């Protein structure tokens, strides 16, 4: 087992598998709060394409993320099996609750450490920093996105702090906004 797999907490763990744009992805089952059928989604004007909508989950406003944006996946047409995974993500900034769009949700399965590998250096369109590992589950390749890195980069970009690893499409802040943010942190 590599230190990368240990660090991302994905060795010998139960994961929820789901499909996005024809690819099978997985997230640790411990992060899953619930799976919802598509509900009333509110688009936020001027918001980044990655997290451009919000939804009401039992009285709480939850941002809705589209992993197709940072993972450079093609958009698909509406799917009858589309679901929203509501996740609790531990980030450096603290735990956040976020919804993720899935074309379908498959099952909960166990992935062992010896089934996981780092992303290959060639043959993938995904930025390597956004992929924690790839592996096999029930004969299918499964990609485990590094949600902490994806959302951390997005949050940094949204807070106006310079970050070279921000999610694609994130709008950088102007210099005065960056100065205000830095002065508040000091």
Automatic annotation (TrEMBL):
Gene3D superfamilies listed in its UniProt record: CheA-289, Domain 4 (2.40.50.180), SH3 Domains (2.30.30.40)
Pfam families, per the entry: CheW
GO biological process, one term: signal transduction
Domain CheW-like: 12-156
Superkingdom, taxonomy of origin: Bacteria
GO cellular component assignments: cytosol
Name of the featured protein: Chemotaxis protein CheW
Organism: Roseivivax jejudonensis
Highest classification ranks of the organism: Bacteria, Pseudomonadati, Pseudomonadota, Alphaproteobacteria, Rhodobacterales
Gene: cheW_1
């Amino acid at each position: 087992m590599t230190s990368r797999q240990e660090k991302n907490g994905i060795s010998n763990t139960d994961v929820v598998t789901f499909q996005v744009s024809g690819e099978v992805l997985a997230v640790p089952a411990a992060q899953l709060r619930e799976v919802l059928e598509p509900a009333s989604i509110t688009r936020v004007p001027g918001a980044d394409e990655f997290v451009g909508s919000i939804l009401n989950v039992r009285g709480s406003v939850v941002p809705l993320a589209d992993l197709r944006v940072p993972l450079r996946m093609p958009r698909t047409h509406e799917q009858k099996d589309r679901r929203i995974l509501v996740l609790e993500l531990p980030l450096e900034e603290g735990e956040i609750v976020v919804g993720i769009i899935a074309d379908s949700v498959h099952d909960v399965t166990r992935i062992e450490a010896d089934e996981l590998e780092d992303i290959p250096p060639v043959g993938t369109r995904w930025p390597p920093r956004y992929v924690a590992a790839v592996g096999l589950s029930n004969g299918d390749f499964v990609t485990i996105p590094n949600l902490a890195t994806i959302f951390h980069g997005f949050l940094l970009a949204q807070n106006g702090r310079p970050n070279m690893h921000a999610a694609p499409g994130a709008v950088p802040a102007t210099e005065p906004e960056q100065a205000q943010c830095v002065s508040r942190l000091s």
